[in-house]
Structures are given as structure tokens and as C-alpha cells.
Amino acid sequence: QVQLVESGGGLVQAGGSLRLSCAASGRTVSSYVMGWFRQAPGQEREFVAAISWVGFVTYYTDSVKGRFTISRDNAKNTVYLQMNSLKPEDTAVYYCALDPIVRGPVRKSASSYNYWGQGTQVTVSS
């Protein structure tokens, strides 16, 4: 079993920055693709970013490209999401997730991930 715990959320003004962390335990995650998703009230969970198990390949949803950066530190079993130039529309609960395919391709569908954290709230005020 894998446990994922997100942290780093909070309230920030538009234009500000936050760094989310996702600490994994129960299994070394260095061989797995990791992703970040978000869900705003009344909306479906949406893909934000994902990173390959090696860390060389990253994907982002169009709305965060150039503002968000996903990274991982396999030695710490942790994945990060650096969020800059935040906008009110970035307000959501952010979840990290693990794709169970060992050394698999980077995938953007939430259904591809079967381990999820509890989420951390990010609120951006205008």
C-alpha cells in the first residue's frame, strides 16, 4: 500500500506563489509516474501536471503551462508542484496521485491513477 500526503496549500493573493509537496510512504515511488490533479467546487477533477518516473518528461494542462512546475526528489520519495503567478481560477483542492504501472508512460487521465492523497486546499484571492 502507498500513502500519499499533500501539504503546502493555503490562501494566497493573485500573482503569488505556493509550493505543494506530496510525500509518499509505504513504497518507493521512484519507478512510478506521479501526477497532480485539482477539483474545484461543483467541477470534475482535472489533470494539472504529471512527471515520468525518471523525472525527465513532464506534462501540463494548458492553463498552467509556464506558471506551474512539477518535480520529484526520488531520494526523498516526494513530488512537488511549484505554482507561480497564481490566479483565482486556480482555486481548488489539489491532489497528488500515483500511476501503478511500473516505469510506465506519463498519462493524464485520472482513471489511470489508483493511489490518491487526501488533498490540500489552494485558495487564490483576487
Question: What do you see in this structure?
Answer:
By secondary structure, the protein is mainly β. 0% of the residues lie in helices and 52% in strands. It contains no helices and 11 strands. The protein has strands spanning 3-7, 10-13, 18-25, 32-39, 46-51, 58-60, 68-73, 78-83, 92-102, 115-116, 120-125. The strands form 2 sheets. Strands 2, 4, 5, 6, 9, 10 and 11 form a 7-stranded mixed beta sheet that branches. A hairpin with a 6-residue loop joins strand 4 (32-39) and strand 5. It is globular. The model has no long low-confidence stretch (mean pLDDT 96).
Q: Output the helix-strand order.
A: EEEEEEEEEEE
Radius of gyration: 13 Å
Look at the structure and give the mean pLDDT: 96
Counting helices, strands and paired strands, the structural category is mainly beta
Gross morphology is globular
Helix fraction, binned, reads under 10%
Largest sheet: 7 strands, mixed
* Share of β-strand residues: over 45%
N- and C-termini, Cα separation: 40 Å
Number of helices: 0
Low-confidence stretches: none
Number of strands: 11
